[in-house]
Specification:
Structural class: alpha/beta
Helix content: 25-40%
CATH class of the largest domain: Alpha Beta
Strand order of the largest sheet: 8-9-7-10-13-12-11
CATH superfamily of the largest domain: Dihydrodipicolinate Reductase, domain 2
Radius of gyration: 19 Å
CATH topology of the largest domain: Dihydrodipicolinate Reductase, domain 2
Order of helices and strands: EHEHHEHEHEHEHEHEHEEHEEEH
Number of helices: 11
Strand content: 15-25%
Shape: globular
Largest sheet: 7 strands, mixed
Length: about 350
Amino acid sequence: MSVSVAILGATGYTGAELIRLILSHPHFEIAHLGAHSQAGKRAGEVLPGLCGETAEMVLADSDAQLSDSIELVFTALPHGAAAQSVKKALDAGKKVVDLSADFRHKDHDTYKTAYGCEHPCPELFSEAVYGLSEFARESIAGSRLIANPGCYPTSVLLPLVPLLASSAIDIERIVIDAKSGTSGAGRTAKTSLLYCDVNEGVAAYGLPRHRHAWEMEEWASAFGDASVEVSFVPHILPMTRGMLSTLHLVGEKPEGWHSILSEAFAGEAFVRLLPEGTLPTTHGVKGSNRCDIGVAVTGKRQAVIVSCIDNLIKGAAGQAVQNANIMFGFDEGAGLAATALWP
């Protein structure tokens, strides 16, 4: 079975990863590439990693009419800009995996608080499924609109949800210290991301409250069956890709948390729990759709959970393909690698 695919926002870092993954997919075929600011150019002019027929494809405007033959649309557009494209695709009978933040929340008030703008299509909130693949397979399979999770929330929620569901941790003392490569900020030119500004340094950002904190709290509460608040501080590092989130947690019997996570992720292809006391690194997951998790008990009621993903793969394009595979009933790992690029 072959599924014709469109990618809107194809020239950003996430769009480029989608192209790369789909080109090696056994069932998905790229039929349309949209990119508003680069419309009219050949894809290879904007994305130097492309070659062959895909490099010769002409980039359409993001608002261009999609062919009737297209069944699946990936929208990798900025928040606020994606919603109308999503609605247009749904109205045309397409299935959509949206990689923006436009449908990650269940109500308009939370979205407006987190992103500071009105949502143009709030009527779609009730239909969108939050696509944290390992915890939402059944809902994903029956949906036509998937809200792909953010990168930071993915890295945090995967280890946090099982511990919440087991009532193992104190829900009022969840502290998250997270670090990301610069690709997480997108491809738009920003003076704060110039080489001289980020090289040989590290900086916190997004304070007093990063917008992903609302997403973490909403879905930790939904999947973990507990109303939580998080203290979340993200940092940017002078590396291209990779994300490491450190969760400082308190609760009863932290020596048993490794077993809780081991049971939760038994048989999961894209979540790897490391041996007790072993901690993951960003190099260990680079280029893969895998999340590596490590547990270190640091006190009688304290432990540190370290979670690593490639922010462009498991944190974006890879999870989007994983969700699309579930939507269409394909093998969940089709077109995805569980093995990292190392060194």
